[in-house]
Amino acid sequence: MGHLVGKFSIGLCSCRHEKHHVDEKKCDIPLDTCTSFGYGADYLIRNKMAKEVSKSEMLDHFARSREMGLVFCADNVQKNITFICHCCGCCCNILLGISKFGYPNFVVTSNYIPKIDEKLCIGCGKCAKACKIDAIQMVAIEKPETKKKKDAKINKDFCIGCGVCALSCTTKALQLVKRDKRVILPETTFERIILQALDAGTLQNHIFDNPQSMTQEFMRGFMGGFFKIPSVKKALLSDALRSTFLATMKMGVQVQGKGWLTKL
Hints:
The protein is an alpha+beta fold. It has helices at residues 14-21, 38-46, 55-67, 93-99, 126-130, 164-168, 189-200, 203-207, 214-227, 230-237, 242-255, and strands at residues 8-12, 32-37, 50-53, 71-74, 83-87, 112-116, 136-140, 150-154, 174-178.
């Protein structure tokens, strides 16, 4: 897959496309914004769902999105990333899940959280306006010793640490700092799928995937019941056992002659 590493593509944003067709697109953000890389880009290019671009064109595209204050929502892996979405608050269904419907875990957060320096903050409200999920609210204050009329309050339960608010702050009062608890991302797409399947209770279907085998049917039921035990799932997803569990899964895949899957 080495020849795919340097592939880049830009394609249609499904969320803006949907809002455009139902006449709910209120922003002037272009429809062609979603970016893909590597084998993800190769698949979309081959199937005529995105156009291939050069590395310099991709960098220019990111610079424009940054200037427009869009949120970069990336593939949730450390290596071989396949996509980055360029999201606005009015069209993105994922961000609307947070701002409109109040679900705080729709997006895996970054390892950072905004922090406000009260001495530098002038209460202009630019950060609140820039936030695409309404995680910053301007609250009226009474402080005779200052001209500031409002304070910016950050809802840390909803904030995803995208940094768009910090980019909008002209006084540099708002900066990103590291979160108290580090967010550990899966290393590869293989690991992400395994962990997601475990969390969803479907991992046994991936391990024993032959529907015609009575033995595998039994093992699907047996392991499915085992993985559904809350203490077992919690332990396997914990920081202490997750690495060992994933290493064991990789060994099993390699024994089956499918080691290439672990490279995705």
